Amino acid sequence: MKFLLKRADAKLTGIYMKDSLEVAEDMERTERLDRAGKSRSTKGQSVSRRRESYNREKARSGVGKAATAVIAAAAICLTAVMLVIYNTGVSMKEMNATPTGGMPINLSASSEPQAVYADTEGQDFVQLSDPFLVLVNDQVALPSDWQVTPAFIGEETVDNRIYDQLKAMFDAAGQDNIWLWVASGYRSVDEQEGVLQREIRLHMDNDGMSEEEARELSLRTIARPGHSEHHTGLVVDLNDVSDGFEETEAYRWLSENAAEYGFVQRYRSDKVEITGIDNESWHYRYVGRENALEMQRLDMCLEEYVEYLKGQGVR
After folding, report:
1. Residue 211 is assigned to a structural domain of this protein
2. Which residue range is the domain that position 285 belongs to?
3. How confident is the model at residue 34 (pLDDT cuts 50, 70, 90)?
4. pLDDT digits (tens, 9 = 90+) for 49-60
5. Over pLDDT 90: what percentage of the chain?
6. What's the pLDDT score for residue 26?
7. Are residues 67 and 176 in the same domain?
8. What is the distance between the alpha carbons of residues 36 and 314, in angstroms, rounded to a whole number?
9. Which of 30, 49, 111, 260 is 20 to 30 A from 279, comparing alpha carbons?
10. 256 and 127, same domain (yes or no)
11. Is there a single domain that holds both residue 25 and residue 134?
């Protein structure tokens, strides 16, 4: 009996130990599988992270390329627009300038044409019929029915009637490596008043003159409002508006060539007693080619030439 019990106990112990070993082996196998799963999971996560990083880089690269393409397209469009503007500007320069807003400027409130004007000596002055020979000076005011059809050259305005010849003169000078530009063109009566007042104030502040003295000196180089040639739109002040302009190559070129394009130096040093204005080497007046060449031949200023033509029966 004891023997049977021992044998049964041994058998149960063996079964128990076998089961224990199998359980242990199962647990070990499970742990290995868990570790392998974790390893695969870790590798999967790593691959996933690399894939996400690659996708992000690719997306950023795509955005960068897209941005570059947009910037390049914008640059091309901007260049095209600038070329159109430039070509339009060139074509506008090559044709007659168009009136600003299509409306001429009337410098007087009066709508009635007036051909007769009184000078300071009480004598009547009659303008010639040729508008390019309109006389405006300290004794003769701008005609009340005078109109300017403005055209832009650079930032300044001139009368449309002189635009082509002025541009042709500038182009010809450029061919000779002489650069001309308009420092001042058309001025309204109000603008002329402002120019005169600034000059008067300058002499009062810098030279200690009284207002009367400053005005008298200023009027030697600046015309009274309503009596300025700048109101006509037929006049340009060129380049550096200074006495030094007379020493430049540009002035020498103008002295030789301006008349061919219808322009004359309006105020010369040898005509001060007649014009009432000091020498202005930069101030050029359009009178038309034929008149300019004749004035040059006769060595006359505009006041002399108008009276000469009247003496010839010109009206």
Report:
1. no
2. 114-187+228-311
3. low
4. 544 544 454 444
5. 59
6. 53
7. no
8. 119
9. 260
10. yes
11. no
Q: Tokens 């019929």 correspond to what residue? A: 129
Digit-coded pLDDT (tens) for 231-246:
999 999 999 999 999 9
121 in catalytic set: no
Q: Spell out the SS3 assignment of the chain.
A: CHHHHHHHHHHHHHHHHHHHHHHHHHHHHHHHHHHHHHHHHHHHHHHHHHHHHHHHHHHHHHHHHHHHHHHHHHHHHHHHHHHHHHHHHHHHHHCCCCCHHHCCEECCCCCCCCCEEECCCCCEEECCCCHHHCCCCCCCCCCCCCEECEEEECCEEEEHHHHHHHHHHHHHHHHCCCCCCEEECCCCHHHHHHHHHHHHHHHHHHHCCCHHHHHHHHCCCCCCCCCCHHHHCCEEEECCCCHHHHHCHHHHHHHHHHHHHCEEEEECHHHHHHHCCCCEEEEEEECCHHHHHHHHHHCCCHHHHHHHHHHCCCC
For residue 48, what are its two tokens? 């996933």
| Amino acid making up residue 145 | D
Residue among 155, 280, 294, 307 flagged as catalytic: 280
Task: Report how far apart, in Å, the C-alpha atoms of 169 and of each of 83, 157, 194 are.
Answer: 26, 16, 30
Distance CA 263, CA 269 (A): 17
